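User: Here's a chain of 474 residues. Predict its fold as tokens.
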Amino acid sequence: MARHHSGDQPRARCPGPSPRRSVLTAGTLGLGGLCLADLLRLRSAHGAAGARPTRPTSVIFVWLPGGPPHLDTYDMKPLAPAEIRGAFRPIPTNVAGIEVCELLPLHARCADRYTLIRSVSHEFADHGGGHKRFLTGRLPKEPSGFVNDAPMAGSFVAKFRPGQTRGLPGYTALVDGGRAHVDTFSFGSAYLGPSHTPFIVPGDPSEPGFTVHSLALDERAERRLDDRARLAAGIDRLRADLDASGGMRARDRFDEQALDMLTSRAAREAFDLGRESDAVRDRYGRHRFGQRALLARRLIEAGSTFVTVVMEHPGGEQPVNGVYNWDSHAVNCHIFDDARWRFPFYDQAVTALVEDLHDRNLDRDVLLVVTGEFGRTPRLENQIGTQTKVHQPGRDHWPGAMSMLVAGGGMRTGQVVGSTDAHGGHPRDRPLSPNDLWATVYRHLGIDPEWTVPDHAGRPMPILPFGTPIAELL
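Assistant: Prediction complete.
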């Protein structure tokens, strides 16, 4: 087990995931200038053969980079010493025996519609190692760094369960501006190739001028595309006339598919939050967390299969003793003041999504998973904050135990799976790994984890090397 830091010496500020870089530009998919047509060519070359489940199931995967504190959210220890239990008290929910943090009152009202899992753990305490271990379901070759040596689970979904609607990305990641590089959060597709990386959409959907650059074509640009399409069709007809043998191809079908995506009404409508009522948008919250969650629901309804929602910074003014994402070291933030600012945004967005899926009768077909790469240390640390210059409480990385929320997917809800010891340090019963979660996800999507794909050396690699669906959910 990778151990957390201890001692009284101030530690360097933890940088967390990779620095902001590689903003998505018009006509690209957030992957080094790869255009839509290139992506479609690659996807065809690598094959998009896949499972055909009995119904159009899908997944919304909410990713909380930095690692949320399980003892201050879903696995509170009110009887533990003060240096472990922290500053907050648990409150009862609408399910007897289930408690959550007092800063999550909306969670308390709908606990019957989700499940809390408290006993997942792994052994990688670095952000990079934790991201790779969790997101790929494999032991990474290097314990740090964010470049995958195995595909992120979403990439397997992109390969075996492409989207349901022509012109709409089947696999999308919604991220903050400046966080659009595929390796920022270990979303790489490794040996599956770049055709199976997500369509990355950066920016703040709560801003009035929010657009998806790859799909934001003004009327003049549309006319130019139409002209190009007619010109290409004319050239193809001319080639056919000149080539009596019929050996010349018509216009590249991948360019046609790219053009279809760029001009897709389905894509434009799915990404258009203005089609939602003010009441619905207010219910989710007019902030990054809320509007990104709402956008994910719209994409899934329109025919996407896997949508990753990255919740780092909720937007607005961050307190001086707060931190950008969930990396709540004492040197980064005052963990409890940061929680007082951050948790209400999170509480609103996640519960709105849980209840909206249920109210729209999507809770059978859409599986929601909310998690980070690990938990935080049971024992509080106290360090001098980089910004505040005063001593403040925080928690370090802790892969020995973590909590997550699961809803929908036609699965059992209103329960807690697993538990941790008295101090929240390790699973006490029902120990699980990230692979058990992914086995559950793949089962929901109709993907057999034992299916294999060749790695760079041509060796057959299973989608998931080990893991069993979580029986309590099924």
